[in-house]
Amino acid sequence: MLRAIFAVDQTVTPEFVSIIYTLSDGNPFFVEEALKSLITTGELSYRNGSWDLKSINELRIPRSIQDAVQRRFEHLSEVARHVMTFAAVIVVVLTLSYCNI
Fold this sequence. Notes:
5 helices
C-alpha cells in the first residue's frame, strides 16, 4: 500500500512499514493521514524524483488519526484554521438539526 501511495517501484524500508502498520493496525485511512502529516511537517518530502524520509529515530509519527489531523491543522494559516473551525461548527449544527436533536 505504501508503494502505491508513494507511486514508487523501490522497496519501502521494512522498519518504516512495521511502524506504520503497528500504529494503524492496517487502517488505510490512518495510513494516509499519517503520511500526509509527515509530509506537512517536512519529515517526509519528495525531492529530485524520490521520496526522502528522515531517520526512523527522528520521525514524529502520529499516534492516532486525531493526532495526524491536528498536526496538519496546526500548519494551516490562521485564516484557514478559522474557516475550518467555522465549518466544523456548521456541520455539527446541521447534523443536530437534521436529526431533530
